Amino acid sequence: MPKKLHKSRATMLIAWLVVIAIGGLLVWVTQHNARWYREPIVRVTQVQTRPGTTVEDDFHNQDVQTKQILTGKILNGQYAGKTIVLNNVYSRSKAMDQRYRVGSQLFVTLHHHHGDLSGTVKDLKRDGPLVLMLWVVVGLLLLIMQFSGFMAFLSVDLNGVLFLLAIFLNGSTQGARVLWIFGSLAIVFAALTLWLVLGPTRQMVITLATTLSGTALAILIALLVFHFTHEKGMYYEAMEYVTQLPRPLFLAETLLGSLGAVMDESTDIISSLFALKRERPELNAAQIFKSGRQIGSTIMGPLINVLFFIFVADTFPMGILYLRNGNSWGYTFAMNMSMGVVQSLISGIGIVLAVPLASFLASRLMTKKVTL
Amino acid sequence: MSTISVLGLVLLLLMALVGGKAGIQSFLALILNFGLLFLAMVLVAFQFPALTVTLVVGLLVLALTIFMSSGDDLSSTVAFIASAIVLVGLILVIVPVEHWAMAQGFGPEDSEDLEGLSVLVGVSFTQVAIATAILSTLGAIAEAAMAIAAGLGEILEQHPQVDTKSLLRDGIDVGKQIIGTTFNTLFFGFFGGFLALFIWFTGVHYSFGEILNDKVFVAEILMILFAMVSVILTVPITTWVMTRAVTGQRRHQAAVTAKKDEQK
């Protein structure tokens, strides 16, 4: 286990080398795992490029489309080892297409027709970069943070599994109870994560209470505002990938999105206050409340920013496409960014509310003498 | 009034009540960040080079977030320099991985949203994907750098003579404390946003292999992983910048006292 690593330089060097070697091995495996897939996979061995043609759309956007003739070897299935010729067209912008290179592995659909084997390209095989980046995260966590990194990763993993289970549950109820499912999931998420970080302590109970009440209050305030403004300027049709009733889904997304940040904020404030009380047990509740407010108000701004960039940056490509398609700035904002902004504002409210909540609960519920 | 303005007013009111002047300043920083993000989008749409725009806007966002929410002292300067280094390092990771994964632009899941839109618009969506990944992690980098720098600043205040070697260890220790909760912020932040997509995958019965290689899925997961890498890297880099700053300060102080002694 990496937590048992000694601090000496040689062991650290070996640890780094081992991590890099495992990373290389994993990437090698993803380049040779075609047999694990049922869909036929082709490795491109030769690329011929035809001269490009310039195209122009209704908005005078110019682009160049180029045809590639790809020669490749089928890697799996009943035609494994056979050579196949495929056509591909890519554009300079590559919004919906790809420019393939020698060595690219592609999913194809094969057509067998009177002894001739032909095929069409479906998509690129992308498990390589995915596995590499995943390993970079795990490797860096273990090398730099050691045991704490392992625990952080474990908690993200457990939450990921719960998240998947909840999605399957949502699917089996046809999305009718999405808010209930993810609302209860939020409680389980928060309890599990805080238990992993803090253990079954009084501090954990206070942090959990703050997290849940902060998030719930933010959603309540949002619902009130929705009610009085009649959701003016909110475009549920602008949400992406929606396959069920959008409004509860939007609330569930917002609830989950804010939960982590509210938990982050509460954990920071409450652990600082517990440390403060340990150092200076003579402080009374009012003083504790005041320091809590002070600590909280310096971290709330950056935390709201974290979520804002996550929620809104995601709409960047679609926003650019809207602008290039002759839409006004206002319409582009409304159709792409408005829902993300609403989500950031609601989670912002939750993050700010966590400050007085955490300070109040900690100042009242901390026992007179705080022990480790 | 629209929902956004009322929610914005509620947030402003709460931030002012809880944080006073600093709270209002943080709110202002948030508005300015939104302006910068929108400006970046418009500039890229006007075919300015996406990477340059992102780098400039990124540095501005980091400066705004860090200096407007905690004033101008040693730890904010350290946090800013460190986050700028992380930003550049992140670009070095993102560019090759995005070129390899080719997860730019839109996938078949987007076809409904793309109806009536021309996708051959002459803007490189590979560059746009790189810009998106960088922009989405800016908040996390700033937050982590500030937390580490503030933690180290506190240690320096209590033990002004701490040597740089133990300061390095302290930085990693502070990092260990924040990494768990920061990862959760990222996890929930991103997964909250992807909820609809994941429901789509299970509803349309994609196979496991199809999901793992799906363009939109890979693009989204890569964004989380980039954000996580940047937060992890922020810990040692901020600590390193802090030790450099402290060493420089001490050398400067030593020179000043030496000079004073000479004059005596």
Could you please describe the fold and organization of this structure?
The complex is a heterodimer of chains A (372) and B (264). Chain A has 372 residues and is of the alpha+beta class. Chain A has eight helices and six strands; from the N terminus they run αββββββααααααα. Chain A has two domains: 34-125; 173-365, Up-down Bundle (Multidrug efflux transporter AcrB transmembrane fold), CATH 1.20.1640. In chain A, strands 1, 2, 3, 4, 5 and 6 form a six-stranded antiparallel β-sheet that branches. The longest helix of chain A has 46 residues, at 127-172. The model of chain A is unreliable at 1-6 (pLDDT under 50). Chain B contains eight helices and no strands. Chain B is elongated and about 80 Å long. The mean pLDDT of chain B is 91. Classes of the chains: A alpha+beta (372), B mainly alpha (264).
Radius of gyration of chain A: 27 Å
Mean pLDDT level of chain A:
90
Please identify the oligomeric state. heterodimer
Number of helices of chain A: 8
What is the CATH top level name of the largest domain in chain A?
Mainly Alpha
Number of E-type strands of chain B: 0
